Amino acid sequence: MNKPLLEVRGLSKRFAIGSRFSSEGRRIVHAVDNVSLTVEHGETLGLVGESGCGKSTLGRSIVRLYDLTGGQLLFDGQDIGTRSLKALRPLRPRMQMVFQDPSASLNPRRRVGDLVAEPLRLHSRMSRAEIRTRVAELFKLVGLLPDQIERYPHEFSGGQRQRVGIARAIALNPDLVVLDEPVSALDVSVQAQIVNLLADLQEKLGLTYIFIAHDLSVVRQVSSRIAVMYLGSIVEEGPAEALMAAPAHPYSQALISAVPVVTTDAGGARRQRILLAGDVPSPLAPPSGCRFHPRCPVAQDRCRTDRPELRPHGPGRRVACHFPVTEPG
Amino acid sequence: MILSVRDLTVTFRTEEGPVRAIDGVSFDVAEGEILGVVGESGSGKTVSLLAVMGLITDPNAIIGGSIRYRGTELVGLPARALRKLRGAEIAMIFQDPMTALTPVYTIGWQIAEQIRAHQKISARAAMDRAEELLAEVNFPNPREALSRYPHQLSGGMRQRAVIAMALSCNPALLVADEPTTALDVTVQAGILDLVRRLRDRHGSAVVFITHDMGVVSELADRVMVMYAGRIVEKGARSELFGDPLHPYTRALMGSIPPLTGERPRRLPAIPGSPPSLLRLPQGCSFAPRCPVRFEACEARPALPAGARAAACFRVEEFQS
């Protein structure tokens, strides 16, 4: 068996917030807490969870936009978790990122062709002419017109700007692209275009994606596997369709049941929803035991003290729960 | 009818010429019904409801048509009279709860003030009523929440506080503009539940604006779909989603990835993006993106009267 493209072992990321002089003093947020996962070549791992669950922090830690607090990060067999920024530089072209808001990640004062050329100028030894050819090629690849190369970002619609962001990310033929909510800011009718584009590019270029989003139906559409996060940890992981059809963790179950869907049947039977009590607890003071237990509909005494580990639960699936809501199978 | 809107137009004077944000929109809301308004950005769903609430204060806006609330014409009504109606009978909640909350007063103070602005009761009684309202919108600890400031609450809790404020005067009509868009799905589920309960318990009519067809499908009794400043389709929820007539509605529904069942290899996407209101096509505004357009689409299709209708020349062909 081939070795995985990415292996994350016990990754943690903590942030210190507040100053020593504030009333509460300096406090520690456990944004990502002991996460382990692997990503195989050519697959798409979907990371889902609600705001504050740590999915974006995990994504950014994986491409080392953050320094890790703990754990190991193996990219193509090489340990990159503790490398200095300088030592990381040769690997940068191989892992790229696409952000949610393309208008915020594109410099408004530069032409989009220039923005797409930037990674090529920084990381390749291409001549000017070669870069120009490559930019034209990239524009075609992401469905933009050649005469748009000289335009500025504000002249583009949201969907087109996201295409520019994608062109920039794939310019250096990366192996891994981390997509952080790439379609969340787009209109529904435009979302589908970008989702299709990402699928096409993956097929053509053999890309590996980590797709971070809160929209479960979009994640299900693009992912081969899905990992559900809650308060900094993965609570469940498995093949996209199987996990969505029969979630094993009570949190995944509640999350999936809360997604409003269009009912096309004329009778319009509303789906049974599991309403969770209360809010997501603050990651400053996570609950004891299983972090989901204060809101969990099936919590028992053991869940209050004993934190469940992510354990195998049927083929290709893992769940961190003492009392999974489905039988492994 | 609690609300009757006829031929509403909203035009903004801009440097690049007049922009018609709302173009001849007519609809009714019956007492106690939930009307869902769906559309993408720029479809005019928000502007039309702001016009209804008399909240378009831009001096460059020209509002035409008629808006009747329980028989009273709202277009041209003095600001004072309109203000009395808002809050007391018509309440509104927005996407960002902070637009309705001030950061410098406690939640309890803000709700009590809202109550006292429209009812003659003592400060003490208003505070007690505020606590009841917070309990009604499922605050886990309403007494304690009274003394909290907005920044101490989560987004979902803030939106609940705003709903409590909206409920304070038992509004006959609640206008909700994307109130759950910024919230997580599990929190959204709770808010939608609350809106439904408000209607069931108090008999309030609700106009719910959203871009999310799933939300509308779970909440609304009747639905209207807007595109580029016009209503393109309307109907009862089950009819509209069970058998969408307008190509835009059909395409929009098709472009949402399914949550269950087979995954399509590619999503049936709509080409292009919603048109700029500055450069609207001559005829049907959806024509440039429409898979079934033909010559007739160079003229503008009207929305037929009646409860179930679509503004498309080819509707009959799609009717099953």
Protein topology:
The complex is a heterodimer of chains A (329) and B (320).
Chain A: E1 6-17, E2 27-39, E3 44-48, H1 55-62, E4 70-75, E5 78-79, H2 85-88, E6 95-98, H3 102-105, H4 112-123, H5 128-141, H6 158-170, E7 176-180, H7 188-205, E8 208-212, H8 216-222, E9 225-230, E10 233-239, H9 240-245, H10 250-257, H11 301-305, E11 311-312, E12 318-319
Parallel strand pairs in A: 3-8, 3-9, 6-7, 7-8
Antiparallel strand pairs in A: 1-2, 1-4, 4-5, 9-10, 10-12, 11-12
Helix pairs in contact in A: 4-5, 4-6, 5-6, 6-7
Chain B: E1 3-14, E2 17-29, E3 34-38, H1 45-52, E4 61-69, E5 72-73, H2 79-88, E6 90-93, H3 107-118, H4 123-136, H5 142-145, H6 155-167, E7 173-177, H7 185-202, E8 205-210, H8 213-219, E9 222-227, E10 230-236, H9 237-242, H10 247-254, E11 309-310, H11 315-318
Parallel strand pairs in B: 3-8, 3-9, 6-7, 7-8
Antiparallel strand pairs in B: 1-2, 1-4, 4-5, 9-10, 10-11
Helix pairs in contact in B: 3-4, 3-6, 4-6, 6-7
Would you kindly provide a written description of the structure presented here, covering whatever features stand out?
The complex is a heterodimer of chains A (329) and B (320). With 329 residues, chain A is α/β, with parallel strands linked by helices. Chain A is 30% helix and 21% strand. Chain A contains eleven helices and twelve strands. Chain A has helices at 55-62, 85-88, 102-105, 112-123, 128-141, 158-170, 188-205, 216-222, 240-245, 250-257, 301-305; strands spanning 6-17, 27-39, 44-48, 70-75, 78-79, 95-98, 176-180, 208-212, 225-230, 233-239, 311-312, 318-319. The longest helix of chain A is centred in the middle third of the chain and has 18 residues, at 188-205. Chain A starts with 5 loop residues before the first strand and ends in a 10-residue tail after the last strand. Chain B is an alpha/beta fold and 320 residues long. Chain B has two domains: 3-89 and 173-190 and 203-257 and 268-318, 3-Layer(aba) Sandwich (Rossmann fold); 97-170, no CATH class. Chain B has helices at 45-52, 79-88, 107-118, 123-136, 142-145, 155-167, 185-202, 213-219, 237-242, 247-254, 315-318; strands at 3-14, 17-29, 34-38, 61-69, 72-73, 90-93, 173-177, 205-210, 222-227, 230-236, 309-310. In chain B, the strands form two sheets. A seven-stranded mixed β-sheet of chain B has the order 6-7-8-3-9-10-11, with helices on both faces. A four-stranded antiparallel β-sheet of chain B has the order 2-1-4-5, covered by helices on one side. Chain B starts with a strand and ends with a helix. The model of chain B has no long low-confidence stretch (mean pLDDT 91). At the A-B interface, helix 6, helix 7, helix 8, helix 9 and helix 10 of A face helix 6, helix 7, helix 8, helix 9 and helix 10 of B.
